[in-house]
Design goal:
Blueprint lengths: L1 H21 L7 H7 L3 H39 L6
Length: 84
């Protein structure tokens, strides 16, 4: 048990160290670089668009998995799936 926790803590520490160390080398995508040159009013619209696209990219897989789990649960409850 102690070995498992030690492994988890070590892997978290290594991943945090890598992410902190490599953050200064991160390069922006071409669209992000172009967004910097926009006018003040356009920057808010671009930032909002990026935020919503990230939200949808994160929400779609969870929605699909949730829908699939619900349908499997319903099929098991109704007895439509064979016993394993």
């Amino acid at each position: 048990m102690a070995r498992t926790w030690r492994t988890v803590i070590l892997s978290l520490a290594v991943s945090a160290l890598i992410s902190v160390h490599s953050s200064d080398r991160a390069m922006a995508c071409p669209n992000c670089k172009e967004a910097v040159s926009l006018q003040g009013s356009e920057v808010a619209n671009v930032a909002s668009g990026y935020n919503w696209s990230v939200v949808f990219m994160l929400a779609v897989p969870f929605s699909m998995m949730g829908t699939g789990a619900f349908m499997v649960r319903r099929a098991v409850k109704w007895g439509l799936l064979p016993e394993m």
